Amino acid sequence: MKNLKMQLALLLLSALGLSTGAYGQVTLPNHVHEKVANGSAILMSPYNPTQKLRLALALQPPHMAEEEEFLAELETKGSPNFHKFLTPEEWNARFAPAAEDEQKVVDWATSQGLTVTNRFANRLLVDAEAPVAVIEKVFGVAINNYQVGNEVDFSNDRDPVLPSDLGGIVYSVVGLNSIDRLHGGMPEARKAKGADYVAGPVYGQGIASHGDGDPTKSSAAVYAARAAGLPSPRPGFTNGYADPGDIFTSEAYNWDGLERFSHCCNVHNDSGGSPAVSSIALATYAGLTAAM
Fold first, then answer.
1. How many Å apart are CA 99 and CA 253, to the nearest integer?
2. What is the rounded distance in angstroms from the CA atom of residue 262 to the CA atom of residue 280?
3. Does residue 51 share a domain with residue 146?
4. Which residues is 56 bridged to in the sheet?
5. Residues 247 and 272 reside in one and the same domain
6. Where a domain ends, among 125, 153, 181?
7. pLDDT tens-digit map of 229-280
8. Domain range for residue 266?
9. Are both 107 and 207 inside the same structural domain?
10. At 224, is the secondary structure helix, strand, or coil?
11. Percent of the chain with pLDDT over 90
């Protein structure tokens, strides 16, 4: 009976795309960057073992097929769920990982010397940080410096391993390389490379402000000026990175996607759409000057 249970467990791990390594461990596949795997990233040296890095342990959504079906119905006119948005609490009750699974990840990470820096209400991520030497030991990887084009980035050299009881819970470890990273939508922001680690909180609660817009400086006015070859009526002051007005253009986010869900542009608070008041989050490498 014990052998049968072990065989069933191995079959389950295989179905999840996980492979078994040493006894009691599973390997998370596809975690080595393709440039490291194919040799185009040139190995230079081991990474500083005392340097801290931030990681995110991503938990498997337990009802992905149902979740995708619900999202499709939200935007399909005639569907009984068209624009029937859920509250965060309702969403978590239907689609979030179990609280005990998230707690298991937190307990394991803490026991291995990782510092948990943030947890989320939807239980999809557990943020953690640790010195590189600890990360290498925990996940069974080596982290090295690689020459990637004209940059030097860090990356793990092999796929990470986890205890088998986390194999069906954690499906990804984000942050093991700096080759894959967030690139800003603005021309200069696309060139920017942030520090590998910045001390401080993972995220901060921003200030709240509001005001009436100036139609002469709207996105439509900006586009019209560009088409006519005239200077923009909304001058920039961040040297091409991301001026506040840029968040109202498709360069900042998927405008069509938001509009399809009525998550933007509902300034008249029409029924069936999102509230007229919306929140915007800005992701930065470090601090944000609110005075901008």
1. 31
2. 15
3. yes
4. 127, 174
5. yes
6. 181
7. 888 776 666 666 666 555 555 555 555 656 665 555 555 566 655 555 555 5
8. 195-292
9. no
10. helix
11. 50
